[in-house]
Amino acid sequence: MVNPLQSCELSSEKAAKTAKCRTCHAKSSSSSLSIEFFKQSGWSDAQVMKLMQREPRFLHANIETILKPRLRSLQDMGFSDTEIVQLVSSCPRMLDLRDIQPRINFWRSILGSNERLIKTSRKNMFLLTSSLAQKIEPNISHLRECGISEQCITRLLVALPSFFCRTNKCINESIKRVEELGVSRYCKMFPRALFTVMTLSRARFDATFATLMSFGWSQPDSLAAFRRQPAIWNYSKKNLSDKMSFLMKEAGCEPTYIIGHPVLLTYSLEKRLRPRYEVMNFLDQNKLLDKGRNLLSVMVLSEEKFRNKFLFLLRKEKFIAQYDSYVVAVHGKHLVVEVN
Questions:
Q1: Which of 78, 131, 138, 170 could bridge 166 with an S-S bond, Cβ 3.0-4.6 Å?
Q2: How many whole angstroms separate alpha carbon 196 and alpha carbon 225?
């Protein structure tokens, strides 16, 4: 008997593993029909193979009562054939749902587009199948009660969709934890702080405190930094240690200066902190600056503004080696950078 998955170019071993029952001619026939249906709907051999490996039961799903109505429903909602393949591939179990339309309409009302919905679903396969009434809607309502804007909820959803699929108890505990760390739910940094708490284990979180305190920070100093820049906690111990060492030993910053401006620790050491410091130090040594500049004011500038304000001085004064050194450090290769 011919294996119905041979049309998807599966090896006999994979085919046997994917479709367990090959003794019944009727089931074999339905398998071939299911595969052919997906291929006629715009799926490639590889895409069908991957789908059947994840959900072998679709080999025998009824085309007229299950597969065709579900895919037609997605088409009626404005999804292209390509988008349907991407969406179903990210969450195959959505084809089991009878209420797929209200679910998708709910998520699209928040995310704003099919593209964003597909991108978010790829990050969490349970997003579309989790209960809206029992889990998703209560979680979102709680975030709104905390003063988190719709825009922030959307950003959080795109960045961490699994957050919304967690139990209400877990969400409440995370919000409480953030407030215990001194970040008010009405503070603009609350969403970022909540994201950090949700994505890091307690051990990893405490390890960052220990890293900062090893450079002379007190616990209140570290808490103050968290309230200002919770994103710092997403960096590794080595990343933070390297930045702290550079700022204190090479750039000559006092610990109090870094504590007061923790945003410095969010910049790349190799692509911003060190290259810009070396440019400014060189300009200062060659008396090309009309006045002194504090480190923070230089680091916060956009790349374009930094080039136009300071880097062009290297070109103007024919310091080509220093100019090229900066460009290579920041861009990874020699570039012809236009300066005004």
A1: 170
A2: 13
Q: Which of 20-34, 115-129, 136-150, 314-328 has the lowest mean pLDDT?
A: 20-34
pLDDT for residue 29: 55
At how many degrees (to 10) do helices 81-90 and 114-123 cross? Answer: 20
**Residue 45 identity:** D
For residue 41, what is the DSSP state?
Answer: T
pLDDT tens digits along 37-86: 999 999 999 999 999 999 888 888 889 999 999 999 999 999 999 999 99
Q: Based on the number of CB atoms within 10 Å of its own CB, is 78 exposed (0-12), middle (13-18) or buried (19 or more)?
A: exposed
Q: Which residues touch 240 (CB under 8 Å, ≥6 apart)?
A: 208, 211, 212, 232, 265
251 phi/psi in degrees, rounded to 5 = -85, -10
Residue with tokens 């989790």: 130
Q: How far is CA 46 from CA 40, 50, 51, 85, in A?
A: 14, 6, 9, 12
Scored b (16 or more CB within 10 A) or e, 242-251 reads bbbebbbeeb
E strands, 158-216, are: none
